[in-house]
């Protein structure tokens, strides 16, 4: 299909029709994704040597493609198989008959899969490692989007001279080969990729050559369960991919912090959580509407998700027997609060609910909070409750501090804080309030945990009352509450 196609209008060159220019070092699939995301309508004519292909996009949907006698999906895949060339967008006067019915996500993924099958393990994205500075954190980025790989690489290397991106891969099979070749200190891993997806890749990494893995994805309702599964398979942490509608410098700083903490993980200490199969109903717990007399706050960070899952299964009913409740704080994006509560209910039969409004702290309940969403404990007519803090009130300081300070004021010696692997405590203002009010701070045993560095700071500050093996945590909490109530 050439320029004489009747579907293409011959707009005079003097008519204002936007900008003309050149985009360098960008892939065709990224351009198509941008057009589809913006719900554009256009014809993209692509030239490769003496070959010409056309792709029609109408209201953000790919409806037709033609190339060298082929039409429909096969023509689309052939065009996207060209790794270099030129393109121009042409105004569409009328839409052609639809020959493509798959959505653009599927089409782009399938095109990438075919390219990878034709030329697996290409080193085009690999970065030479001969002169790598061994004092720097060596990162391998795995993502099927060339644009996202470059964005992440730029954010990591420009924000810290202590990080070096030693390689990039577009699918799991490439990643496994590069891990063998480059031995990175840390891998950022996309969830959905052609050839080999994130789940299979993570399993291969943990079996063949374990190293810290941070999952990168755009969080959504459909992805939450997959993220929890990744964390239970050995991924150290999860972080959202950077987005254009948020402050890029803030995102960059958060990504850097998570990468640096995750890199300290000793993945050899990872253990798949052994959660007993729950019987029908709630796992031994008997939640009531009665106000709790004691409270346990369980804080988890990078590397601590499997520990938290295993602990809560037995801790919630144990605390309920002593007229207590539990608050579980997880280091996940705010969108995951509701999904995590449902996951706890389904996976552990734990009576969990997200703290999205002022809620009474009741016996036998597990209230789910997120690190980045500050919570506060208040008392009304002797009934303790927990709820989110207004954005204006939460400005400044570490989010966990307000929760611990207000919980200490309410429960005093009947408050227990359990810190699991990777649990961040900021400047420890909240922990000091717990300590001074007579509450207890219990650490899971650092020597057997994946991420011990944040817990080291608590011990150095003299704020830890006990350091306990994971199997003894429930008993330690229970025995302490018995003496305080």
Topology:
Elements: H1 28-37, E1 42-48, E2 51-58, E3 61-67, E4 70-71, H2 73-80, E5 86-90, H3 104-118, E6 137-142, H4 146-159, E7 163-169, H5 172-182, E8 186-190, H6 198-208, E9 213-217, H7 224-233, E10 237-240, H8 248-262, E11 294-299, H9 305-320, E12 324-330, H10 337-348, E13 352-354, E14 359-360, E15 366-370, E16 375-380, E17 383-388, H11 391-394, H12 399-411, E18 415-419, H13 429-436, E19 440-444, H14 453-460, E20 466-468, H15 473-484
Molecular structure report:
The chain has 485 residues and is α/β, with parallel strands linked by helices. The chain folds into three domains: 28-118, no CATH class; 137-263, Response regulator (Rossmann fold, 3-Layer(aba) Sandwich), CATH 3.40.50; 294-484, 3-Layer(aba) Sandwich (Rossmann fold). The chain is built from 15 helices and 20 strands. The protein has helices spanning 28-37, 73-80, 104-118, 146-159, 172-182, 198-208, 224-233, 248-262, 305-320, 337-348, 391-394, 399-411, 429-436, 453-460, 473-484; strands at 42-48, 51-58, 61-67, 70-71, 86-90, 137-142, 163-169, 186-190, 213-217, 237-240, 294-299, 324-330, 352-354, 359-360, 366-370, 375-380, 383-388, 415-419, 440-444, 466-468. The model is unreliable at 1-6, 8-15, 120-132 and 279-283 (pLDDT under 50). Residues 287-464 form the CheB-type methylesterase domain. It catalyses: [protein]-L-glutamate 5-O-methyl ester + H2O = L-glutamyl-[protein] + methanol + H(+). This is protein-glutamate methylesterase. The modification 4-aspartylphosphate is found at residue 190.
